[in-house]
């Protein structure tokens, strides 16, 4: 692990010294797909204005867990959740929660950039219109603001009416992040947001996430341990549906408590 710190990974961005308040708290969360117990008794605090990375080998439940935070698993008929995910004094898992409102406050970005097959500006404005915003000046201002926040404005300001699908993969992913920002969320969930991108585009997204954590709480699923080490303040290691270890990223990578964490981050499996 020490070798990893010296040779491969810079922890220079893991700046968190004092824990910020917990914004989302998962307690004894269990998620099933039919008989498959995919996430087992997970307790995980997510601190505000920090980046939390979920790592672990394929099939360990990372995506299942992150999707549950904004109830995307509701779309899978076989999925069933138990436990508590507290956010603003409500349990996200309560069936009475207004999921449309929840997804405004907790946005999500997926592995494959998925812009709407509409113009660049409409990608930002459609969710706003859906939320009832009609004022043209506001729509324009929010469009510019969100595109500025993801560093895309200068690249696209002269072609806002062009199709979003004309953008490169990396630009499309930044547009999807801008679209998530349009509804002024508190939290952004990202499920392997760079795994379909080239290294330069991935680096831009990492830089962007480091900027965005000043204003938003970020949870990211990543297979790339170096990415977790570069950008995450906290890391959670999942294995076979269980949360094996959670802590500050530097500590988890350099001084893990559990042998399986140590084996995974040193490449002995996964
Ligand atoms: N839509 C689904 N329907 C049924 N089972 C699912 C579904 N999605 C995931 N699973 C199962 O849940 C378990 C956890 O899968 P999940 O995709 O959450 O893991 P993961 O850690 O995100 O894996 P990967 O890194 O490969 O994406 C696996 O056994 C998987 O087969």
Automatic annotation (TrEMBL):
SMART domains: AAA. InterPro entries: AAA+_ATPase, ABC_transporter-like_ATP-bd, ABC_transporter-like_CS, P-loop_NTPase, PstB-like. It holds the Pfam family ABC_tran. PROSITE patterns: ABC_TRANSPORTER_1, ABC_TRANSPORTER_2. One of its GO terms (cellular component) is membrane. It comes from the Bacteria. PANTHER family: ABC TRANSPORTER I FAMILY MEMBER 17 (PTHR43423). This is Phosphate ABC transporter ATP-binding protein. It comes from Sporolactobacillus laevolacticus DSM 442. The lineage of its organism: Bacteria, Bacillati, Bacillota, Bacilli, Bacillales. The gene is pstB.
């Amino acid at each position: 692990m020490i070798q990893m710190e010296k040779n491969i990974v810079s922890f220079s961005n893991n700046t968190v010294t004092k824990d910020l308040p917990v914004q989302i708290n998962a307690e004894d969360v269990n998620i099933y797909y039919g008989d498959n117990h995919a996430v087992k008794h997970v307790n995980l605090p997510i601190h505000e204005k920090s980046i939390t990375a979920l790592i672990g080998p394929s099939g360990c439940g990372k995506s299942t867990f992150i999707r549950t935070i904004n109830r995307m698993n509701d779309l899978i008929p076989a999925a069933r959740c138990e436990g508590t995910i507290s956010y603003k004094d409500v349990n996200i898992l309560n069936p009475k929660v207004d999921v449309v409102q929840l997804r405004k406050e907790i946005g999500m970005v997926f592995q494959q950039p998925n812009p709407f097959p509409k113009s660049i500006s409409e990608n930002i404005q459609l969710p706003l219109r859906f939320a009832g915003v009609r004022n043209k000046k506001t729509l324009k201002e929010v469009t510019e603001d969100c595109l500025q926040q993801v560093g895309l404005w200068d690249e696209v300001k002269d072609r806002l009416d062009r199709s979003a699908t004309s953008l490169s993969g990396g630009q499309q992913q930044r547009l999807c992040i801008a679209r998530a920002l349009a509804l002024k969320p508190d939290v952004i969930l990202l499920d392997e947001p760079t795994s379909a991108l080239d290294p330069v585009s991935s680096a831009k997204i990492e830089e962007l996430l480091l900027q965005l954590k000043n204003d938003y709480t970020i949870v990211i699923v990543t297979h790339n341990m170096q990415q977790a080490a570069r950008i995450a303040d906290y890391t959670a290691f999942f294995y076979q549906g269980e949360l094996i270890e959670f802590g500050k990223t530097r500590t988890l990578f350099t001084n893990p408590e559990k042998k399986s964490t140590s084996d995974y981050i040193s490449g002995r499996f996964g």
